[in-house]
Structures are given as structure tokens and as C-alpha cells.
Amino acid sequence: HITPEKFYVEACDDGADDVLAIDRVSTEVTLTVKKDVPPSAVTRPIFGVLGTIRLVAGTYLIVITKKKKVGEIFSHVIWKATDFDILSYKKTMLHLTDIQLQDNKVFLSMLNHVLSVDGFYFSTTYDLTHTLQRLANTSPEFQEMSLLER
């Protein structure tokens, strides 16, 4: 969900009420609930947040807008991110000079090129950041941690 003040990332899991709120001015990230999302927010589906990047014009949020199933590991689905959106925290570019606007355009083009290269994979239920061998040698406490905590 997008408002002029915040981005709201809502979990789509059944029963999930948590919403990640990202302030577009302070860049502060907080956890809130669905009822806090204003009804006026523009809503669109995404499949994940790749991260943020700071360019000349300010901070941008990179989200996954399309995915393709590429396989499974132990019944855990592995997805390939196939399309992305780069959302500006800033509402306007009026604060930039012509040179800064051109530089920002070049950096966005470079970022789009990098995102168009194959190789962005993710799973919502399996840890792709560690090898199977390393996962086998971790403690039970580590295994019980959520993917986010790892």
C-alpha cells in the first residue's frame, strides 16, 4: 500500500495482521497492523522487498513484482524474481538540478540493468543463504529461528 507519507507492506499469510510501515520522509521502519493502513492508500500486489538504495534523488524501495517457480528443495518452493519496481521515497524531483536529474536517471538505468540480469532467487520457507551442509551443522536453536532472525 502506498500513501504520500508511507509505504505499507502487508503479509499475505492467512491470519497475519502485521504490516511493515516505512516512513517516506524519515525512512524509519516500524511494525504496525492492517487497520492502521489508510483506506486512501494505493494498493498493489508485490512478492517481496529486495531492499533499499540511496541515489542522487534520495532513497528508493526495490520490490519484486513478478516471480516464477523454478523448483523445490525438500518441498520448499524456490522462486526466481523476474520483475521489479523501484519506488521513490520522494514525492517530487523539484529539489534536483538538471545535472542531478540526469545523474539520477543514469543510476536508475544502471540499477534496472542489474535487476534485469538473471540470478535473483528467493524462498519464503527455506534458507537459501546457507548451504545444506552448513544448515546440517547448525544448532537446534539456529534451526528454530525464523528466516528473518537468521
Give the helix level as a range of percent.
Answer: 10-25%
Sequence of secondary-structure elements: EEEEEEHEHH
Structural class: alpha+beta
Order of neighbouring strands in the sheet with most strands: 4-5-6-7
Poorly predicted regions are: none
Overall number of domains = 2
Largest sheet: 4 strands, antiparallel
Radius of gyration, in angstroms, nearest whole number: 18 Å
Globally, the shape reads globular
Number of helices: 3
Give the termini separation: 27 Å
Number of strands: 7
Notes on the protein architecture:
- One of its GO terms (biological process) is phosphatidylinositol dephosphorylation.
- It is an enzyme of class 3 (hydrolase).
- This is Phosphatidylinositol-3-phosphatase SAC1.
- The protein is α+β, with helices and mostly antiparallel strands.
- The protein has a four-stranded antiparallel beta sheet with strand order 4-5-6-7, covered by helices on one side. Strands 1-2-3 form a three-stranded antiparallel beta sheet, with no helix packed on it.
- The protein starts with 5 loop residues before the first strand and ends in a 6-residue tail after the last helix.
- The protein contains three helices and seven strands, in the order ββββββαβαα.
- It folds into two domains: 1-43, no CATH class; 45-144, no CATH class.
- Helix content is 19%, strand content 37%.
